[in-house]
């Protein structure tokens, strides 16, 4: 018995020596910041970036070697796979910084904004990247997420991130019933519509139209919306490029679908 007691005492003493006298005292008890933000690279032709709030890196991608990737969040992608990052309230300069070795960490989309306590936000790089000035536009919208009360319906909103397109309204047509609904009202560039709980669970063909027109500007077929879930549909791309229903096609218009929760 004495042998095991002595061994335990020796191990304990060794751990304390290795870790320092206050090793067990450094416990993080403070709660995470209540505010949240996520980041979209929807700037046409923009390079891959890491996103920053002031000097704090908010997103990055690790390569297979364990070092930070020089690819970053590329055009059409959402930082951290669409997850929100915790952020303290206050005033920030938000930006995407080039991830590649060339022009490494050059800020291309700085935007100063205020983050309020307990609120959620989305930051968008938008418009068309200027290869001469190495800049692209950006904007922030508050994500005023509506908690679902009807779990048979999805909550959806529309964000407009196409700099050379007129204000548009989003429509969703149920592929089973052929019922078509407007998802909120008209939305202008750099703006977001309200979250509205309007779509029963199902598969929908999406489209946008200009005010007073019956012609679809952008379309995307067969999008599934689940009851009780919250989604953001964002128009991105270059409105002068050939139309496409495939969001993976560079420059062409697209209705991106990203879940908020």
Unreliable spans: 1-26
Helix content: under 10%
Number of helices: 1
Give me the Rg, rounded. 23 Å
Strand content: 35-45%
Report the oligomer.
single chain
Sheet having the most strands:
5 strands, mixed
SSE pattern, N- to C-terminal: HEEEEEEEEEEEEEEEEEE
CATH class category name of the largest domain: Mainly Beta
Explain what this protein looks like in three dimensions.
This protein has 261 residues and is mainly beta. It folds into 2 domains: 31-143, Immunoglobulin-like (Sandwich); 146-261, Immunoglobulin-like, CATH 2.60.40. It contains 1 helix and 18 strands. It has one helix at 2-19, and strands at 35-41, 49-53, 56-57, 77-78, 85-87, 90-98, 111-115, 120-130, 135-142, 153-160, 168-174, 180-182, 191-192, 196-200, 202-210, 216-225, 230-236, 254-259. Strands 1, 4, 5, 8 and 9 form a 5-stranded mixed beta sheet that branches. Strands 10, 13, 14, 17 and 18 form a 5-stranded mixed beta sheet that branches. The protein has a 4-stranded antiparallel beta sheet with strand order 3-2-6-7, with no helix packed on it. β8 (120-130) and β9 (135-142) form a beta hairpin. The protein is globular.
Structure characteristics:
261 residues, mainly beta, Immunoglobulin-like, 2 domains, 7% helix
Précis, in short:
The chain is mainly beta and 261 residues long.
Helices and strands, with pairings:
Elements: H1 2-19, E1 35-41, E2 49-53, E3 56-57, E4 77-78, E5 85-87, E6 90-98, E7 111-115, E8 120-130, E9 135-142, E10 153-160, E11 168-174, E12 180-182, E13 191-192, E14 196-200, E15 202-210, E16 216-225, E17 230-236, E18 254-259
Parallel strand pairs: 1-8, 10-17
Antiparallel strand pairs: 1-4, 1-5, 2-3, 2-6, 6-7, 8-9, 10-13, 10-14, 11-12, 11-15, 15-16, 17-18
